Amino acid sequence: MEKIKKLILDTVKDAVIEEKQILTVTVSWDKLHLLAKTLKDNAELPFDFLVMLTGVDRGETLGVNYLISSSTDISVEVILKTDAADRENPLIYTVTDLYETAHLNEREAFALLGIRFINNPDMRRFFLNSDWTGFPLRKDYDPNPELNPVSIESKEIIDITPRIMEVDGKLVEDTANIFEADDYIINIGPQHPSTHGVMHFRTALDGEIIKKIDVHSGYIHRGIEKLSENLTYPQILHFTDRLDYLSANINRHGLCMCVEKAGEIEVPERAQYIRVIMDELQRISSHLLAWAAMTNDLGATTAFIYGMREREHILEIFDKTCGGRLIINQNVIGGVMFDIYNEFQQDVKAFIPYMREKLKEYDRFFSHNVIALGRMIGIGNMTKEETISYAVTGPAGRASGWSCDIRKHQPYSIYGQVDFKEVIRTEGDSYARYLNRLDEIEESLHIIEQLIDNIPAGEICAKTKAIIKLPVGEFYQRIETAKGEFGVFIESRGEKQPWRLKFRSPSMALVSIMPLICKDEKLSDFIGIGGSMDYVIPDIDR
Amino acid sequence: MILNYSQPLELDGVSKALDTSLSALPDFWRILIECVLVGVVILTTYAVIALILIYAERKITAFFQARYGPNRVGKWGLLQSVADTIKILLKEIIRINNVDRFLFFAAPFFMVCASVMTFGAIAFGKGLLAVDFNIGVLYVTAVSSLGIIGVLLAGWSSNNKYSMIGAMRSGAQFVSYELSAGFALMTIVVLTGTMQFSEMIEKQQYCWNIFNGHISSMIAFVIYIISGHAETNRGPFDLPEAESELTAGYHTEYSGIQFGFYYLAEYLNMFIIAGIATTVFLGGYMPIQVHGWEGFNQVMNYIPSYVWFFSKTGVLIFLSLWVRWSFPRLRIDQLLALEWKYLLPINLVNIVVMVILVLTGLTLTDLFPSLF
Amino acid sequence: MELKNVKIKGIANEDFNDNEYLEDYIKQIEASGVNLVFGKLDELINWGRSNSLWPLIYATSCCGIEFMATAAAHNDFSRFGYEVTRNSPRQADMMIVCGTLVHKMAPLIKRVYDQMAEPKYVVVMGACAISGGPFINSYHVVPGIDTIIPVDVYVPGCPPRPESLLYGLMQLQRKVKLEKFLGNKQR
């Protein structure tokens, strides 16, 4: 850490370094790019993994927080903070040339906060329509519905992007075309059976071969981050469930941990055990659905039904525990809401061998099918460098040989005490991602096996104050969901509501790499790759 | 020696009786009345078989997928497809702007006409053959290829990019697999020395073609089944529709009964492929007969010929559904590679092998004349 | 047609709740005049239509997963003949809207609805689609699908369980069985 500090001060002399929970560096907006580049190129510990890019309205100024980490050791974290000079025309240099994942994140910051990024080649609004009035996440946003009425007129999609480039030291505003004039473009989505939600891929085709993909999103943008700013922390919990609904419980665990860390709330051990068991069950159910959906995308409907059949057993356990199937309101700040029911251990123990049996069946049924192999092996290759640059985590990232499991590298809750393998493959194709998921189901079963008989007795929830207020500060929490790394950022100003709340969506990284890995693949493979990435759209749009 | 007093359930008596009763009429009227009757019967069978097939597929699918399948409409959901028919007949047919209207409306008829025309040439039982062409095999191959025009026109005229991609896929796929299907049938024509379905069936009384030409016939059978399904866009070859990629493929823009036509034709084509395979390879409506087992032959002969035909076809259809619901879909390049790199060369060699088998007298009937 | 004559196989007539709106619907139909000649034929048509409702899935978020659970082996809505999900709106009979509707999606749902062929029905699944649900105060959420397209059945829940979706679909069947295709002067 000392070396890094020295490196930072050598690069930017007037950088302000604060030793908080995470090393925080504040620099002026024109130095940020230089600092990020130096940190990234530093050979000893390259900071080449942009975890989170958060636009914040700080009151007087608009700023951006970058949480960066290193691919070799993802538990090392540094926060770079910068503020735009002018609130009316906020400009910051882009980092898209360093981190590919910044593309969509910067577009998001532009749509929601109006911060424009110099040299970013694509500065269209990401979630909102291009004619949206105002920037919702700014504190002075006018929520009057008359400014932005619901329109049922279909709008023409304009494939021209404005951008702001630096040419010879001067800033030039110009436009660029996304597609060429004679491209044969089809719209895959937003209402399409295989986009796993309402994603919109504008796809330029050359026969069956994909030339270019342009990602449009926001068809399920619900403004959760803005809504959260007016709600108390326990109320916000419910939104996390509805981000990546397949990892509902894990997301919620993430936010709970962030609040508990900030408010210094000790979680009873029994609650920790229940949380982890539930998380792993949720992970299995999510992977099962991912498996099922992927086989369905490849055209094997029966396999889809099989995956859903096994998933139903997990949902039954959830149902008996707390009455919810898909979304279980189990985690609360300080512990869990419901204790486990009497036969819980018995049910879970019955499920483990059943699931192992079914995993073998999947293997026989699909994993070695000639057609399935032809559709998966060598399709949608991503290299480790691309994976890191696009910040693709989770089973997809690990399929490219990047060890990025937060449970291993930055163990939270009781993950430090259990024994499990981080499933890593190096092929980086659809098949590796597919197998990774099946293997992770096995690992999750293994984790549950170790915990299920040792649940300690005691309280299930710590006593918390009726109104939870967090101290002033910025708090980050990273957690491993079924799709990858989920992050929570809370900026608190001592109120019962957050000043700014941001979720890092693992699915956004998965989608952002799609245009790269689908290029020059067939149209059918685009669907198959989408299945193997297993993204959830409401998680991206928030 | 088969005694002929049996088979009270055979239907060929009906057609003979019809012939005699109409013989008094002038030729023109006789032919006209016969044509109309045959037409009505074929169309009715066509529709009824489609309904049964749709129901059967849904039930069998459910069986594979650990579900129940339709069970609310009528006993065991038997009337499910009747309800669907009523619904689809009364569904609005949308007039879409910016389509090539004439072609758009004509396309479904091409599809249905092609499958009805092929359907008419199938021998369902003794005497249940509308026209017994002496070039039956050629006719079937020729007429069934009309269907692709319906698909291509639908894709072209719909003014929809998904439809267009689906239709183009279908075109490539059909042209390719047509070759294999044709060659597989030709292999059997070499074996039997006839193109007439009735003659082909009679020759298979004791030894089905699939056994008669042993190695070569079996290969031809497998190839025919594969390419037949590819031709009808079923099974793992349903790329033109490819629900998960192209929403509904070439018929995306069709609604109501126009879509119903495509839906019907899809099921009927499956039946037709199974029916032709039965006729050509599995002895058609012939019961199982063994030389010298008179009692057994007599018992088998009691079962009407159409029952034999439909049960053999049924087995093949079940096989097709089994494949369809187990395998993922092929990609277009894999599909074409399968045809041009594997099936077609194998087929060409196979024909030569068959010629050699026939010329050198290595077919089963030649080797063991006493048994077969 | 009286409501008590509408029979749905497998569930007793008394077990259905929320009958008021259907009774209103009957009154509405009867007010427009009933042609007795076509009564029986109407029943046949309604029998066909109500038993062959092919869904178009308009799944935007969480409820879509519960819809999939309804379609899968455990709950199996193919028993009712619903399993022929059509991805092309032209061929579907009912649209099941699962999930939140936002500003950017509003024109699209209208368009998909317009593309469907008559007779068409809309089943709305989940709190978000009914009213905006927990997101009702958001700047980007449409407060209820019925502000854009007409809705036949609301299935509440967040997300609704498969059982409630099936119940909702049976309620839709009841509604379809009350319709007058031939005997209604309005058509």
Task: Tell me what the structure shows.
- The complex is a heterotrimer of chains A (542), B (372) and C (187).
- Chain A is α+β, with helices and mostly antiparallel strands and 542 residues long.
- Chain A contains 18 helices and 17 strands.
- Chain A has helices at residues 2-11, 32-41, 102-113, 224-228, 233-241, 248-263, 269-297, 301-322, 344-367, 370-376, 384-389, 394-398, 406-409, 430-452, 506-512, 514-518, 523-533, 537-541; strands at 16-19, 23-28, 49-57, 62-69, 77-83, 91-93, 116-118, 160-167, 170-177, 184-188, 200-206, 209-216, 331-332, 335-336, 473-480, 485-492, 500-504.
- In chain A, helix 7 runs antiparallel to helix 17 and helix 9 (344-367) packs antiparallel against helix 14.
- The relative contact order of chain A is 0.13.
- With 372 residues, chain B is mainly α.
- Chain B has 16 helices and no strands.
- Chain B has helices spanning 12-22, 27-64, 80-89, 101-120, 136-144, 147-157, 161-192, 197-203, 209-212, 214-231, 243-246, 256-281, 294-302, 305-324, 332-359, 364-367.
- In chain B, helix 4 packs antiparallel against helix 5, helix 7 (161-192) runs parallel beside helix 15 (332-359) and helix 12 (256-281) crosses helix 14.
- The longest helix of chain B is centred in the first third of the chain and has 38 residues, at 27-64.
- Chain B is globular.
- In chain C, strand 1 (55-59), helix 3 (63-71) and strand 2 (94-98) form a beta-alpha-beta unit.
- A 4-stranded parallel β-sheet of chain C has the order 1-2-3-4.
- In chain C, helix 2 (39-51) packs antiparallel against helix 6 (162-178) and helix 3 crosses helix 6 (162-178).
- The model of chain C has no long low-confidence stretch (mean pLDDT 82).
- Chain C has 187 residues and is α/β, with parallel strands linked by helices.
- Chains in contact: A-B, A-C, B-C.
- The B-C interface holds B 58, 62, 65-73, 77, 79-80, 82-88, 90-94, 243, 247-248, 251-256, 259 and C 9-10, 44-45, 47-49, 51-52, 72-73, 76, 78-81, 83-84, 86-88, 90-91, 93, 115, 117-119, 181.
